[in-house]
Amino acid sequence: MGELELVVTDRAGKSVASQQYHRGALKVLRPHYLDDSGQVCYVIVNPGGAYLGADLYVIDVEVADGARLLLATQSATKIYRTPGSFAEQRMRLRLGEGARLELAPDQVIAYREASYRQNTHVTVRPSSSLIMAEIVTPGWSPDGASFRYEELRLRTEIRVETGETAGLLALDNVLIRPPLGDVTGLAFMEGYSHLGSVVVVDPRVDQELADELHEVTAGYVAHTGISLTASVRGTAGLVLRSLSNSTEELRRVAGAVTTLLRKRWYGQEPLDLRKY
Questions:
Q1: pTM of the full predicted structure?
Q2: Angle subtended at Cα 231 by Cα 197 and Cα 228, rounded to the nearest 5 degrees
């Protein structure tokens, strides 16, 4: 069991943690400021090193009005064998007016006989800005074969809040069950083994941006597609999905997207989260 709560607020142009709590197998490292923008960077750490059967991890993050947070992980999320019950992560993200969150975790690696469920619930305001990246890769198995895990369920729900109500902007469901068939086949993984996603929510998202991101990512060794959401309460979103046989290639795709947006929207340099 691991539990983490973090509230980030703006103080005179600098984002700081106004509330922080952790229990069990989750904690955050001390804050870092990677540039002079005032954006704070926190890194989530799992001292246990991996998720096992019946493990439950709960993460609650709030970015208050005008605050800016970059949230990363220290290493990959490793899902080992889960006999008897699945491992689960529940994440709740709340963004205030003018708040900005970049979620940049390392990849999820599912090993042999692993079953994992990840539920992410996001609430934004019309002026919030959100960039979330994620990579899923099959782990090593003794026989050298990929896709020996049992199941991966990744569910992300994004709502736009105004006043007392919230409208649904996007509901993204990824379900992979290798034992039920060839997940690399046509119309699913298309012969690839790794899955990457980038989710962007911002009032500046439109078809022109989606077309530009398509051009920016076209030169990589990955099969990429982009979907736009409808505009909801003054904001919009897009989901970029990539398929590849390389974690590093998917990182480069996500990096190309975040680099363009960080420079254009926030005047910041590309992310450098090197941890070794």
A1: 0.93
A2: 30
